[in-house]
Amino acid sequence: MKMALMPKKPFNRAPIWIAAVLTVLWLIILHLDLSFQTLLYGYKDLFEYFGRYSSPDFSNLSRYLVLLWQTLAIAFWGTILALVAGVVLAPFAARNMTPNRVVYRIARELLNLMRALPDLLLALIFVASMGLGPLPGVLALGIHTAGFLGKFFAESLERVDRGVIEAIQATGASRTQVLMYGGWPSIQREFLGNSLYILERNVRMAAVLGLVGAGGIGLALNASLETFKFRESAALIIVILVPVLAFDNLSTWLREKLK
To answer: Which residue ranges make up each domain of the chain?
Structure first.
């Protein structure tokens, strides 16, 4: 009677992965000319600098809340602008909804251009042309995130069941009617989930855009940092973080419910 052969010992890939990670880290250090000695010497200065933010000054809390409300308004209206633009462009960028290939390519490239232009760059351009205020922030967020929403909606429309579209077309419905009665209702869940994600993202970015003059609480934070008012800066950072974190968690919970 022959004895059963023992299975081969599985190959241990852990040393290879460890060696690969260490090699990459070494290449990063070598290429960027990082100095651990400088980091070790500078850690005391780093802790001393962050220690200046240890006593937030909330004496102007009412003003901070007004600025925070303006920041949330920038995020909201920027999302509305992106939503409108995305809804208009998405059908033309979906293969099963677009009138022809030329229109499809133009819509796709326009969405690509919107996504390619960072909202910080757009904010700088609009601030330079329109001046300081919330309008440049709304336009920057709206144009940039319209590229994302338009792409998300177009890809969702392309996944609509072909049978649903053909059934509506069989009734003699126009292209617009097919979209309204077959396209958008079929992607309602994705529509709401993607819109919530963009709104969540814009709430975070609205505060950042204020640093380049696009209005809101970020503008006040930038001014306090430039004048070395560390206690005021600490209070502004806390006022920004609390609602942003709360909204992130709320948005995540709502998107999970939609799934």
So the answer is: 61-258
Q: For residues 237 and 220, what is the distance between their CA atoms, to the nearest angstrom?
A: 10
Position 6 scores a pLDDT of 61
**Residue 101: how many other CB atoms lie within 10 Å:** 9
The DSSP code sequence of 97-127 is TSSSHHHHHHHHHHHHHHHHS-HHHHHHHHH
Q: Using CA atoms, how far apart are residues 70 and 64, in angstroms rounded to an integer?
A: 10
What is the pLDDT, as a whole number, of residue 106?
A: 95
pLDDT of residue 4: 57
| Cα distance between residue 4 and residue 120, in whole Å | 67
Segments in the chain below pLDDT 50? none
Q: Supply the pLDDT for residue 9.
A: 67
Closest listed residue to residue 234, CA positions, set 245, 221, 218: 221
At 7 the pLDDT is: 65
Written as one letter, the residue type at 158 is E
Amino acid residing at 128: A
Residue 148, CA distances (Å) to 7, 79, 104, 112, 155 in order: 51, 11, 16, 8, 11
Superfamily of domain 61-258: MetI-like (1.10.3720.10)
- For CA atoms 52, 56, 59, 63, the dihedral sign is positive
pTM, whole model, 2 decimals? 0.80
Identify the helix (H) or strand (E) that includes residue 97. Answer: none
Q: Which two tokens stand for residue 88?
A: 């208009």
| Locus of tokens 């200046």 | 52
